[in-house]
Amino acid sequence: MKLTIPTFLLTAATLFLGSCASTSTSGAGSSSASTVKPYPLKLCVVTDNELGSMGDEQRIVYQGQEMKFCCAPCVEKFQSNPAKFLAKLH
After folding, report:
1. What residue segments make up the domains of the chain, in order of their start?
2. Tally of CB atoms within 10 A around 84
3. Which end of the chain is more exposed for a tag (fewer CB within 10 A), N or C?
4. 33-61: per-residue pLDDT in tens?
């Protein structure tokens, strides 16, 4: 007996697995390690506090740019309005 898998299940599985493979652990987008631009500042891009001063230093990659934060709440603030904070890098 030959088993067949409906096309929609294969498509759904392919999309799911593809999205899992391309999502970084930070949830901020994907980028290969060789194309990530290093974070140029010594301070948190959100609060201008010293990195790690409010807990463990947080790092994410957003659209190929490494971002560093003084604490986890700053990551959420950044993700709510990235353009506002990315402007500080230029």
Report:
1. 29-89
2. 12
3. N
4. 579 999 999 999 999 999 988 989 999 99
Q: How far apart are CA 90 and CA 35, in angstroms?
A: 18
Task: State how far the Cα of 45 lies from the Cα of 7, in Å rounded to an integer.
Answer: 46
User: Which among 28, 33, 43, 32 is positioned nearest to 75, based on CA atoms?
Assistant: 28
Q: Enumerate residues 6+ apart whose C-beta is below 8 A from 58.
A: 68, 69, 70, 71, 72, 74, 75
pTM: 0.61
CB 70 within 8 A of CB 52: yes
What's the helix, strand, coil split of the chain in %, to 5? 40, 15, 45
pLDDT on residue 26: 47
pLDDT (average), residues 66-89: 95
